[in-house]
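[[Sequence with tokens]]
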Amino acid sequence: MSDYETVPAEVDDEEEIPTDHPRYTDLVTRHRIERGVEAGITHLQGMHAEGRGSAFDYLLGEETIESADDAERAAAAQLLLAERPVLSINGNVAALVPREMVELAAAVDADLEVNLFNRTPARIEAIADHLRAHGATEIKGLEADARIPALEHQRAKVDADGIYAADVVLVPLEDGDRAEALAAMGKTEIVIDLNPLSRSPQVADVPIVDNIVRAIPNVTAHAEDLLEAGLTTAELESIVAEFDAERALEAAERRIREGV
């Protein structure tokens, strides 16, 4: 029997998951979401959202396809061009990629802002503490002293000097209605979503159809490469202009439907 054919029934630490298991990434993300629920970071509904994403990732081959990598490079260029970039964080994002979000924020000089559908003071504070434990120093979204127009639920609550004032917003694992509302405000949106047919990537300027655990480190790596190359503003703008969002979504859908 191969080492990866069994996984411990109770996994206390993701290091217990065999790295050669064919579904290793999926097992790790499920473990992180479970731990997020236990820690009060992730809402129970987030487990259902993670399950949907896992199914699409399986159909994508659980890898970053070429069109997604192109989108991640365009996203890096867009964030570097931004005057007030903000990275939005919900419970699943905090559970899955807390340190990676902090590292991306540092690479592109962006703010981190907590934004939740199931918003409570306890969850906000738990996520903020979790991000601080992974290196964050400044976190927005705690005051939520502004509102996104045309939204009635809790995700409308944002910081006036954060998402409300941002020119570019990274909105991973986003609700479709808020993505549409942010677009209506004139924000440039970078969306990470494993379903290319979802409303969120459909309205995004840069839709990234990839698993967030791969996408965030990829965007950071591209940003660091672009900075190291010393690209001019015009060269960064050219990268963004050459990216075709519709083509990227079509490529992802084709991969899901046809496996090519």
